[in-house]
Here is the input.
Amino acid sequence: MQTNGLIRPEILDDGYSKELNAAFCGNKPIRHLVIDNFLVKDIAHSIYHHFPSMEEMNTHYKGLNEKKAEHSDFTGLDESFDRLHRYLSSPQVIQWLQAVTGIDSLETINDRLGYGLHQGANHSFLDIHIDYNLHPITKLYRKLNLIIFFNEQWEAGWGGHLELWDSQVKNCIQSIVPIFNRCVIFECSDISYHGYNKINVPDGITRKSCYQYYFIPVTDTISFHDTMFKPRPQESAMKKIRTYSKDFIKNSGKKILLKLGLKRFLK
Here is the structure.
């Protein structure tokens, strides 16, 4: 199958790419872009209509800081999912991303820590966090998140906005509605705090997205950390204590596994 032409051609134009680069570099403190109508219509609608149900998602999270589902095995899904993943991993797209972001040596990883689907039903949420920084197997540094939303029906009042926060998690700097075929690209760092607020949707509606991560080689000694949550300012004192305690225990445990060479438990 061909892996050409899945991003709307106008977006890949050299002139528009320069405009996107200026916008990406100008957005602070988290360098990011929001691009609407990102994919050509046929692939976007195919992904939406063949999106797996909540019951078919292979991983479900329901804890203190998140309630959502994840799926990264595309073998049993419609071919459009694998086609999109391969296209987003292609040299053409990587070259475009490097031009748009100014970040060189980008590459992808073909496991659940590198790409997949997210979905959330009613009351789904993902608290503010930064993502893991080093892939535990390849030791590549996670540098870019690319997210595409596949919600043909979405009202702003339903919540679920992708929130970007300042480095101290004191103020939300941007709130992005997850409308259909909207792409968000942002730089991963130790201050790229993001998440989404709790959704309140009618029966039969879920928040659907596809994620693809991009990595760069590590040139300096960087200490591994897993996902690290930070509570919003209005959260209760008890939730703040529980969040910090949970993350300390989780990260300490994973660092011990890495030192012991037990990488397979971190996949």
